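Researcher: We plan to redesign the surface later, but first we want a full-length starting point. C-alpha cells attached.
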C-alpha cells in the first residue's frame, strides 16, 4: 500500500490497515486515533521531536518531516517501523532510534532543544515521571509535550503535578486519554509539598483502617491552620504558633 498525495492522511491510512509493529510483529499498539491525528496536524517539517515508545506515532513524525528520536527497548520495532514507512512511501531518514529503556537512555542523551515530546513508554511508577524529568530541561520554553494514557495512576500523578506547576500549563485533552501540556518557564518543581492534589486527595490509605482514621483526625488538629487555631482557642493560648501546609 503506497500512500498517495490524494490520501486523506497518514492517520487515515494507518487506521484503515494497522501494521503489525509490536509484539512479535503481529500486534498493533499505539496512540488513540485522535491523538495521532493531533500529531499529524501539529508537527511541522524541521521540528526537533522525541518520544518514549515507538510505533504509529513514529511513522507520523517521519511523515511530517520532523528531526525525530524514538526511544524503545525493542530493536525489532525499528525494523518494522522503517518497513512500514517504506510500504507507505514515506521518507524515514530524519528518524533516529535509541535502543534501550528510557530511564537508562535519556540521562545520557545529549540532544539539543526539543519543540515537542511524547511520553508513551513504560507506564508503571515511576517511569512516566522519570521520562518527564529527563526530557523537561530539553523542551524549549513554548514547546509542548504529549502525555499519553493519563488515566493510569502514575501518568495521572504527572499530569496533576504539571497542572499545579507555574512552569507548565495543561492546554487540552486530545481524545479521552492524551493530555497536551506547554512549557512556560525553565523552573525546577517546588522542593516542598504545598498542598497540591497530586495523585488525588491527601490520604492515609497506607495505614490500617483504625490508624488511618486516627491519623486523619490528628493531621486536621495539629498540622492545618484551622485545626491549630481550634486547639489554641481550646487551650486558651492565642499565642500558639501554627504552620500553613497549603
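Model: Full-length starting sequence:
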Amino acid at each position: 500500500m503506497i500512500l498517495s498525495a490524494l490520501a486523506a492522511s497518514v492517520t487515515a491510512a494507518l487506521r484503515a490497515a494497522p501494521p503489525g509493529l509490536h509484539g512479535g510483529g503481529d500486534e498493533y499498539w499505539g496512540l488513540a486515533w485522535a491523538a495521532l491525528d493531533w500529531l499529524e496536524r501539529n508537527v511541522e517539517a524541521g521540528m526537533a521531536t522525541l518520544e518514549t515508545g515507538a510505533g504509529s506515532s513514529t511513522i507520523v513524525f517521519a511523515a511530517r518531516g520532523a528531526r525525530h528520536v524514538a526511544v524503545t527497548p525493542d530493536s525489532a520495532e525499528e525494523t518494522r517501523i522503517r518497513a512500514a514507512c517504506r510500504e507507505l512511501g514515506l521518507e524515514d531518514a530524519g528518524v533516529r532510534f535509541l535502543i534501550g529503556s528510557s530511564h537508562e537512555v535519556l540521562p545520557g542523551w545529549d540532544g539539543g532543544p526539543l519543540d515537542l515530546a511524547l511520553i508513551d513508554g513504560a507506564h508503571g511508577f515511576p517511569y512516566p515521571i522519570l521520562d518527564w524529568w529527563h526530557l523537561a530541561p530539553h523542551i524549549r520554553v513554548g514547546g509542548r509535550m504529549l502525555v499519553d494514557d493519563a488515566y493510569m495512576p502514575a501518568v495521572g500523578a504527572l499530569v496533576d503535578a504539571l497542572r499545579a506547576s507555574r512552569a507548565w500549563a495543561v492546554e487540552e485533552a486530545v481524545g479521552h486519554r492524551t493530555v497536551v501540556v506547554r512549557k512556560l518557564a525553565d523552573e525546577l518543581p517546588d522542593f516542598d509539598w504545598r498542598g497540591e492534589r497530586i495523585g488525588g486527595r491527601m490520604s492515609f490509605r497506607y495505614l490500617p483502617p483504625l490508624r488511618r482514621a486516627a491519623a486523619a483526625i490528628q493531621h486536621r488538629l495539629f498540622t492545618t491552620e484551622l485545626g491549630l487555631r481550634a486547639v489554641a482557642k481550646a487551650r486558651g493560648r492565642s499565642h500558639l504558633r501554627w504552620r500553613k501546609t497549603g
